[in-house]
Amino acid sequence: MIYYTENESKTYEIAKKIGQNAKKGDIYCLCGDLGVGKTVFAKGFAKGLGIEEHITSPTFTIVNQYKKGDLTFCHFDAYRVEESDEMLNIGFEDYLSEDNICLIEWANLIEDIIPKSAVYIKISKDYEKDTDYRKIEVI
Prior knowledge:
The chain is an alpha/beta fold and 139 residues long. The chain has helices spanning 8-20, 38-48, 84-89, 92-95; strands spanning 2-5, 27-31, 63-68, 71-77, 100-105, 119-125, 134-138.
């Protein structure tokens, strides 16, 4: 599936719809350059899950967890991870349980430890169309 957006609010809304359809055990991998809107996407995705807390990118903590009833949303950011072993050392595999929904920013940096069942979401810019234009590919 491919989506096109012209602004952050449309990216947010697409992510919200994807979040509304997420199920426990799902793993979503966000890929794209700096500044393409991965964190905006994460905020919309969390809203779709019913998470009302303020969502921040866990760039320095690697993972933030949010709860809504019996649902746990695990939001990862692998940008500062130098080796996949760092993720394994924080118990990454335990977070990928069937009880959680996981969203991993910069997942392309740790692809060797991502389960094959993960859904990849690639966000890219096209400056020829507009500075706020985004292409969102769900693979």
